[in-house]
Amino acid sequence: MGCRNRAESFEEDHSGASSLSEALLLTTMCIIGLPVDVHVKDGSVYSGIFHTASVDSDYGIVLKKARMTKKGKGKTNVGKEDLVDTLVVLSCDLVQVVAKEVMLPTKSFGGNITSDDGETVMHDICSRESPTCEVENHMKSLTDVKHVNQSRTPVQNENGFTHCLPPSTAAIDFERNKLPVNQMRTSTEVDCGKTDKTNIGEIEAYSGSSINCRQAGDDNSKRNAGDFREKPEFVKGKLDEKNQVIKSTHETNTHLAQVEAVENRSYMASNASDNGFYRTNGNASVKADDRCSERSTITNSAPMSSAQGIDLILESHNMPEKSVEISAPKGTDSTRNTKEFKLNPAAKIFSPSFVNPISTTASMPISANMVYVPNSSPVVHAAAVQPETGLSTFASLPSMPVKVAQYSNLTVGNGGSGSQFSPPIVGQLAHNRAQPLRYGAHYPPVLSEHAYLQPSSPAVMVGRSGQLVYVHSVSHDLVHGGTAISSISARPMLNHVQYPKQQGASVGQPIPICVPPPILTNAPQPFALQSHIPLLQPGFPVTRPVSVPGPNGYYGAKFS
Amino acid sequence: MATVDGGGNPEELAVGCMLSIRTTLGDEFEGQVVTFDRPSNILVLQEAPSKPGPGPGPRRNIRLLKANYIKDFTFLGHAEDPLDPTNCFLDLAALQAREDLAIRQAEADAERIGVGVTSEAQSIFDALSKTLPVRWDKTVIVVMNEVRVSSPYHPDSVVGGTPAANERVKKVLDFERKRLQLRSSSGQ
C-alpha cells in the first residue's frame, strides 16, 4: 500500500521513536482536542478534552479539563465535582477511550481533515509529475497569450493554439462544446513542449504548482455531483494557500514568476473566451460556467497537466447544474488572481512586457487609425494613449470592474468632448485596442457584457449629430461581436464592410449640412473603418460558426 | 479465528472486522476494527455512524480499547480497511487550534457551574445568564460585577450595586424565579 508508506514516512518524520502503529497514531491525532470519555480500570469514567498520549511504549493519555462523570468503585484522588485541569491516565489504568463524533479519514470521507496534507502531497506529486510537461504547458500559455490577442474570438483562440490550424468551421466549435477544451490543448502542448526548455528552477516550481491541479483533480474526482457546489471554494482555498507558498518560495526566480503571471492571465483570457463563447450558445453556457469557474480556481496551475485537466472538465461537463452559483465564485477568482499578481512583485514587473506584444500586434491594424488621428486632433493622442494603458491594465488585471470603468470613461469622452473628430476616434481606438483583449478576457464574463453595451448605446445616440455615427456603427459591430458573438457571427464578413458604408450614406442623408466639413474627416474615416474591418475579419469568421439567428432584425432596427 | 493465527500478520488481517464486543466493565458495543496495536495492546474501533452528520463525512464514535479488557466478542463480518490511506493527513496547527478552542470552551463552561450550590441555584444562575452577565463567586452569583445574589437567591437577597442595577437584578431574578417555578410545576 503506497499510501500506507506515505503515512509511515509521515510518521517517521514526526515520531521516529514511536513504537505504535501508524494507524493508532493517526487515530490518536484525530481525536486530539475532542471531548472524550475515558474509562479506567475501576469503572470510573472521566470526560475531558483529549490532550495528548504517550506513544513511547505504553499508551497513557492526558486529558484537559477532565471531570469525573461516573464514579467507579475504586477510590480516587479526583473528586466528582472538581474539574481537573490536566488529568493523566496511565496506561495501566486505561481501559477505553471513547471519542464521539469523530471524522476519521475513512474511505467514505472525501475531504481531508486538514490542509497540511498539501505539503506531503506536493512531494509525491513533484516526483511523479514530469517536469518538462509542465514547462511546456507554461511556455505554451505564453504563446497562447499572443493568440488570444491577435484573434478576437475565443474560438479562434482555441483553434489557433490547439490545432495550429486557421480558424475554421462551426463543426469545430460544436466539437468544442462536446469535448473538453483541454484535450485539444494538451495535445498541442505536448508537441510544443519539445521546443521549450527552461531552467530547472522553473520546472520545479511548476511541478509544484501542478500539484494544485493534481490535487484539485483528486479532490474533484472524488466528489460526486452533490458535492460539486462546495468544490470551488474548497479547491480555491487550498489553491490559495499553496499558491502563496509556492510563490513565496520561488519569488526570487523572476523568470518563473513572470511566466506564472502570464500563465494566469492567458488562462483567464482563455477561460473568459470560452465562457463568452458558450454564453452565446445558451445551453452550453452552463457548462462553460462550470468549467470556467473550475479552471479559474485552478488558474495558477492552469496549464492543466493533461490528465487532471481533462478530468476536471469532464466532470464539469457532467454537472451542468447551478451555473449561477458557480459563476459567482468565478468573479472572485479573477480578483483573486489579480491579488496574486500583486503579491508577486515579479509578475507586476512583467505585466508591462506582457502588454507590449499585445500593443504591437494590435498596433498594426490600428496604425491606420493612428495616422488619421494626428490630423484630427492632438487630443486623440492622449486618448489613444489611454486605451493602451487601459489595455495594459486589462491585460494584467482580468477583473471586470476595472475594465468597465475605463470603458465608460471612453464613452463619456465621446459624449462630452467638443471636437467632433477626436471623440469618435477615441472611441474607435478604444474599441480597436480594447477589443482584442476584451474578446480574450473581458467580454466573456457575462457581467461585462451588459456594462459594455450600455455605454455604447449612449455613444450611438450622440453619434446621430455628427461623425459619431461612424464610430457608433463600428462600435456596435464590435460590441456585438464581443457581447453577443453569436448574433453577429451569423453575418458574413461582407456585411460588416458594407455596413459602415451604408451608414455613411445614411448619415449623409439625414445631415447633409454636416457633411461638408466632415468630408475631409470622412475620408479618413472610411480608411479607419476599413482598417478596422480587416482587423476584425480574422475575428469574425471565427465567430461566425456560432450561428444565432436574429442579428438582422437588430441591425434593421438600428438603421431604419 | 484460525485465519488470524495462520496469516502472516494478524493485525493486518484483523483490520476491517466487524465485532461485537463486551468488556469486563460491562460495556457492550459493536464496531469495526480500525487497527490493533500490539505493543500497547490497544484495539481501535469505530462504531457505525449513529446518524448522518451535518459534515461532509460520517462522524463516528471511536473507541480505543485495551484488548485485555475484552470479555468476549462476536465476529460479525469482514469489511475492508476503513482507513483511507490516501487521506491520512493531519494539520497540526488545526489540531492545536481545535484543542485550544475546546479548552477555552471547557473553561467557560466550567465557570458557569457553581461549586457547592444547589441545582436550583444553578438553574437560577443559568436563567440570569441569559439576560445579564453573571459569574460565580463561590456560592454567590455576581451580576454585572457589582450586584451580589447570595443564597437562597431570593429577590431580597440581592445586595450591592447601584440602585438601578440592584432593582434590575431583583426584577430579573423575580421574573426568572417565576418562570422556573412555572416550568417545574408544569413539568411535574
Automatic annotation (TrEMBL), chain A:
InterPro entries: ATXN2-like (IPR045117), SM_dom_ATX (IPR025852). Residues 22-100 form the Ataxin 2 SM domain. One of its GO terms (molecular function) is mRNA binding. It comes from Arachis hypogaea (Peanut). The lineage of its organism: Eukaryota, Viridiplantae, Streptophyta, Embryophyta, Tracheophyta. It comes from the Eukaryota. This is Ataxin 2 SM domain-containing protein. GO terms for biological process: stress granule assembly. It holds the Pfam family SM-ATX. Transmembrane segments: none annotated. One of its GO terms (cellular component) is cytoplasmic stress granule.
TrEMBL record, chain B:
Transmembrane segments: none annotated. Residues 88-181 form the AD domain. Pfam families: AD, LSM12_LSM. This is Uncharacterized protein LOC107481299. It comes from Arachis duranensis.
